Amino acid sequence: MWPPSGPEMPKTEHRKNLTPTLISGLKPAAKGTRYQIMDAQVPGFGVRVTNTGNRTFILRTRYPGSSTPSRREIGNCADINLTDAREKARKWRSLVGQGIDPAVEEEGQRQEALRKLATTFGVAAEDFIREKLPGERKGKDVEREIRRDLMPRWKDRPITSITDLDVIGVIKGKMRDGKIGARNLLALLQRFFRWVIAQRVYGVTASPCASLQASAVIGETRGPRDRILSDVEIFAYWRAAMRMPYPYGPIYRVLMLTALRISEVADASLPEFEFSNKLWVIPAERMKGKNSGKKQARSHAVPLTADLLLVLEALPRFKAGNYLFSAKGGTSPVWMGTKPKERLDRRIRRTLRALARRRGEDYRAIELPHFVQHDIRRTVRSQLSRLKIAEEVREAILAHARSGIKKVYDVHDYFDEKRDALELWAARLREVVAPPSGNVIKFVARA
Question: Model pTM greater than 0.70?
Fold first, then answer.
């Protein structure tokens, strides 16, 4: 009969080869007593049984800081199987052999796990936004990307739990907006996780983006773009921009009048303007380039032509903030995402179809060839060439850095020449968007 009964029942049986069947067959100890069955494979490892039938895996050894052997519980037999309990006992013995108390080691591991759980993507992202992005030319744009594309998905996720599959899922979703946006988001994630690892405080030791290549995840992109808007497309574009509400319509009009980049316009603020001198100076930190290195950013002077002033003077002024194009009372610049461009495209397409219908063509077959916001800049550059504007002036209008010896010694910024060139372009634009009265096309007003 097992276990032995009576006053001669030993407290510890001889070592046995413990098996799940043997353990499950152990009977409760006599009332007020308990007994142990020690394992033949791992010294000091065994099972302790109480008078209520509770079975517990134990390890008896001399733990660090004690001069005599003592017993510690590894786990209840109902919660941990024999194989895992043996493995845990072996690890404990190894730690003891190194002078490490297993309880201290496991508590440290538990605290580390809790710290990793507490360190969410949102916490690390806010640190990145606060510590890394201020002062960067596109810092506000990067922050908006993080808050729009990443925070809704991962804000409360432990940052250590984000895998390459999570990243691929986000990038694939972003591809609905186009490959360029997806590539930019992947580059942002790669940069973000490099920063996170370098801080050494978030528990991340390997980037989930490390093995991801844009060409494999997103696919190859086309070569350099050559899309420019035709005159009829410029007509439809301007009409669409005139009909779009603030702040988007005025931004698209300024883009066409100046050939500036989208962020250079959308983030404009009142302190940058000298209206009395008809001057707009975009500071270096908002221009393309870096604070150091070969592609050093520099401020860019934009002449305020008569047509540009008409747009700017009609903008609302806010008491709370200085941003010209804002959805929050001037306290922050507007985000020019995909939706405003989609609305612009719909309006342009509607006008192109109206023109086709007037010509007697099948308007339903008319589509707007895809163009991106940067193509507006290329369109203006091409129109300046058409107007025989000197190359140096064209490049100065686009704020392109000069190359070679000219970059070092010719610091002339061509401001007067830029003003003349942009005035010529504004006149040419008026010819396109406001043709002679005999060619005026009447449209039915639509929202």
Answer: no
